[in-house]
């Protein structure tokens, strides 16, 4: 036990004295916390600029354009005479969509005929496309229902029946766990967990690839591989519990991300997650032995980790063999568990399978790290 505490103290000093490790485990954490959430603070896209091509020029078409411009999602930034001119603006990326109101729109509506409007939206950026198409579709349904109601009332239909006829089954959409329907509430909780994994993985890997002259001192020769690995692990846990508190409790509060879980439940998941990631970092350090290689490997696997975690791309759309392989990555399980508990209010009993997987990964990686440490000490004659 005393040997483990000695190693823990040495490793904590190394974290703050070894410049590459300090840059990743401390400075990078601060920089990510300050700058990463900034682009998402607006939560949702607002006032996406589009062009209007009004070929009808009637009161109905102008009303449609005015109400669309008044919506929160879309702004009519230019009124152009024809579709060709509007296409030039879209190709120049100054506008992101074109609303074409056809000729005879008002006449067809007055005669009870279908009067379609056309929307051309930039689908290369899916968020922009969904905002434009959603706003136009919602307004078209609303105005269509209003026109049909007015026509029925004019035909002496009871106003209550006339109001229900165009839309007999109205939809009330309630965004659970994401009241604003925003992108930050969706992306930040999972992304922060992944950032914590990558920084800890790289930082531990860098510490493991740099020689530790203090442990080479004959006074510490009695500390075995178990004490050395557990001592380093204790240092990483002490540091990361502070980091996890700021990332998973403080940052959601500062940026208005809903949080229903208790700190105790979050820590219960974070602990095996930290152990699993730190132990994996020690294994990577022993396998690759070069700081540059460790950084390149960690950088290369960062993007696959992102997709395999299942929050940027649905896990059901990932092939089953790949999904099974992704379980060996701690973030795959931890993201689901932490998001369910912290943002969705799940109980620890609800995420018990995730906890068991994280605990198993922590035990396996820790065992491999101890084995590799023992082999390294044997080669060095300690």
TrEMBL record:
Gene3D superfamilies from the UniProt entry: abc type-2 transporter like domain
Q: Pfam families annotated for this entry?
A: ABC2_membrane_3 (PF12698)
Which residue intervals define the domain ABC-2 type transporter transmembrane in the entry? 24-371
| Main localization, broad class | membrane
Q: Where in the cell is it found?
A: Cell membrane
Q: Which UniProt keywords apply?
A: Cell membrane, Membrane, Transmembrane, Transmembrane helix
* Membrane topology label: Multi-pass membrane protein
- Segments spanning the bilayer are 21-38, 229-253, 265-285, 292-313, 325-348, 355-375
Write the protein's name. ABC transporter permease
Tell me which species this is from: Rhizobium puerariae
